[in-house]
Amino acid sequence: MKHKILIYSSAYPPTIHGAATVVRNMAQSLAAKDLSVTVVTPGLRNSTEDDAGVLVKHFKAFTTNKLLIFIILTITGLRCSLKEKFDLIHAHGTVGGLAAFITNVIMGTPYIMTFHRDDLYLSSIRNSKELTLRLVNLIVARRARYVHVPHLELAKRTSQVLKIKYSKLAIIPYPVPIRFFLNDIEEFNKKTVNILSCGLLIRRKRYDLLLLAFASLVAKHPEVRLIIAGEGNQRRYLQSLSDSLGISKSVNFLGEIDESELIKQYHSCMAYVSASDSELFGMTIAEAMAAGKPIISTRTIGATFLIEDNVNGLLVDIGDAGELASCLEKVITNPDLAREMGRASRRKAENDLSLDVFANKYTKVFLT
Fold it and tell me: What is the tens place of the pLDDT at every residue in 267-286?
């Protein structure tokens, strides 16, 4: 008899990157293992659709208020639970966790939690809103059967923040659909060299640092192009900065792009770069690895899990534009090194991050 899993999440594609991509990849990996997976999530309208074997129930999100989304999410999930008995709930984020908590109280269905950046890992509690958020997370985590994290360093941080034992933490890396990103990593375009970076254009992603590093790189290597995919509140500032640095003709801001275009960008770049101050995992880094690309990144806890320095990429100190520029130059001027690192990236992605690897570990930990 099929195990039935209900997933609560406040984000799901067509939103790309971040929690939405993580949730979709997890759900599809489990559906591929012949598990019955239902996702309850906000959407543009009320709808039910099949997404590669995953039953996705969207409810119309007429508001961005988290309290109202929590209420509608919980009601929708309870309706699903009344129609069929679920073996497990997987909740993502504080809103999903609170919905799972209520469902557990009413229906008795066990749940596991996956926290994401804005939900738990605040560097400090600065106001009553953040204090409330932390208290809710503590309550939700204490009642959960497990708290799921993608790697050991994040497990340590989660244990400290939530004051829970390691036995309650389940470490399973986030999955990536490897087959979508496969391409020929043997040849690079010799006329132009593309360096790719993707994500929200917000302060902690440090695209300003990346532009400073790129300015010194392109002065010596005018054939290099920096491709930036994503939107955010810093876009105008970053475009203005690229103008003032005299590199605007070598930098292409793509804005928000769909998944098919994103995959094309992964395929056409020679290397992937992240200058972020903080990444708990780094889904775009993982996707670039699946595409067989060398990675240059700052030493965030996510990057240090995904990247073995001088094997599938290069790690630089956070905030060091000079070192970032040097590492970019090292890769683009040495195609053989780029290919070798790219192959290592793909091997690691296939061995550690595939949908099949995730589903096998998931069922062993949570469903046996």
Answer: 999 999 999 999 999 999 99
Q: What residues contact 225, with CB distance under 8 A and at least 6 apart? A: 192, 193, 194, 195, 250, 251, 252
Q: Which residues contact 125 (CB under 8 A, 6 or more apart)?
A: 131, 134
Distance of alpha carbon 297 from the chain centroid: 15
CATH no., domain 4-175+353-366: 3.40.50.2000
Q: Does domain 179-352 have CATH number 3.40.50.2000?
A: yes
Would you place residue 229 in the very low, low, confident or very high pLDDT band (cuts 50, 70, 90)? very high
User: Is the Cβ–Cβ distance between 109 and 89 less than 8 Å?
Assistant: yes
List 43's β-bridge partners, or say none: 60
List, by residue range, all CATH 3.40.50.2000 domains of the chain: 4-175+353-366, 179-352
Confidence of residue 55 (pLDDT cuts 50, 70, 90): very high
How would you classify the pairing of strands 193-198 and 169-171? unpaired
Mean pLDDT value across residues 170-178? 96
Q: Percentages helix, strand, coil for the chain, rounded to the nearest 5?
A: 50, 20, 30
Which residues lie closer than 8 Å to 280 by C-beta, 6 or more apart? 116, 117, 121, 150, 154, 300, 301, 302
Bridge partners of 272, per DSSP, are: 196, 295
